[in-house]
Write a structure and sequence with these properties.
Layout (H helix, E strand, L loop, with lengths): L10 E6 L4 E7 L4 E5 L20 E4 L2 E4 L7 E3 L4 E6 H4 L14 E7 L7 E7 L7 H12 L6 E4 L8 E2 L3 E6 L10 E7 L2 E15 L5 E4 L19 E3 L12 E15 L2 E10 L3 E3 L1 E2 L7
Parallel strand pairs: 11-20
Antiparallel strand pairs: 1-2, 2-3, 4-5, 6-7, 7-8, 8-9, 10-12, 12-16, 13-14, 14-15, 14-17, 17-18, 17-19
Keywords: Signal
Protein name: ATP/GTP-binding protein
Organism: Nocardioides oceani
Length: 293
């Protein structure tokens, strides 16, 4: 393990304990990442709750990590580590690997994410490491300012409105826009690297509040009076029970749109997927009463 200048102590990952925010920090004396649960620690990753959660979050084995690491290093999805200063900058003189010259590349510090908490020199080709294009793709997504859909549904959600058990329920995307359904395209650049990303909704999962989830592709069909009691041809449901035993006497309906983003740039391409869910919408379902004398 090679020594790291003592001036560099960098937060690289966060976790949560019962009493405080914990951070994994690089200890230059041991060359290891150590867990610090002292008060005052923040979350350098910003939470990652929104799609394209900013330029500080990258992905590693299905989890989010900061895109910057110790000593100003930059995450590389190719090497699966943060690429930092060269051996020459640290003061170490290393010979290039066989068949390579100092003009072809350099030995660079490669900081591995926890678990592992270590680093080693790795050979990096000249111009290979800059900003990760995935970071720029996430920036492009963030600039789209995407929102959940606006729910269109019959029966309508209102205190004086109710549907009936067994009658068709129609669901659709009300007044779709580029930022609620797509397609929408945006780009982001840094230095010589530019990435273009196009996002669109591939499907919508409707949670009907009665234990049923309906997966619909497309925007659905808006209901009109002339349809009468027909089923929706594209996205519908029928309730089997009244909603009187539900909280507030209504089924809580949500719609989760599944976004797919295709991006390309920096000599790479990829797909980013995420979901956006609406707030619950109360739908009341009653039962027709027949009066006899």
């Amino acid at each position: 393990m090679l020594a790291v200048p003592a001036a560099f102590v960098v937060v690289v990952l966060t976790a949560t304990s019962a009493s405080a925010d914990c951070q994994e920090i690089y200890n230059p004396e041991t060359g290891q990442f150590e867990l610090d649960c002292s008060d005052g620690g923040g979350d350098p990753g910003g939470g990652g709750e929104e799609p394209g959660g900013g330029s500080s979050t990258c992905n590693y084995n299905g989890r989010e990590i900061p895109c910057t690491g110790p000593m100003g290093s930059v995450w590389s999805s190719v090497h699966e580590c943060w690429i930092g200063p060269s051996a020459e900058e640290i003061g170490d003189k290393l010979e290039p690997p066989p068949g390579q010259t100092n003009e072809d590349g350099a030995w660079r510090m490669c900081f591995f994410p926890p678990p592992g908490s270590s680093w080693e020199y790795t050979w990096v080709q000249t111009g290979e490491v800059g900003i990760d294009p995935v970071v720029l793709a996430n920036r492009a997504i963030a600039s789209m300012d995407l929102d959940p859909i606006k729910i269109g549904i019959v029966p309508e959600s209102a205190p004086n409105r109710a549907g009936l058990v067994g009658l068709p329920v129609w669901m659709w995307v009300d007044s779709p826009t580029d930022d609620t359904f797509g397609p929408i395209t945006a780009s982001a650049s840094e230095g010589s690297v530019s990435v273009s990303a196009t996002a669109s909704v591939s499907s919508i999962v409707w949670d009907m509040g009665d234990g049923t989830k309906v997966n619909c592709t497309g925007k659905g069909t808006p209901y009109a009076d002339h349809y009468g009691k027909q089923d929706s041809p594209t996205c519908g449901h029928r309730y089997a029970k009244m909603s009187t035993d539900q909280p507030e006497g209504a089924y809580q309906v949500t719609a989760t749109s599944h976004w797919v983003v295709e991006w390309t740039g920096g000599g790479q391409s990829g797909t980013i997927e995420f979901d956006l869910t609406t707030n619950p919408l109360p739908i009341r379902i009653g039962e027709a009463q027949v009066l006899t004398q």
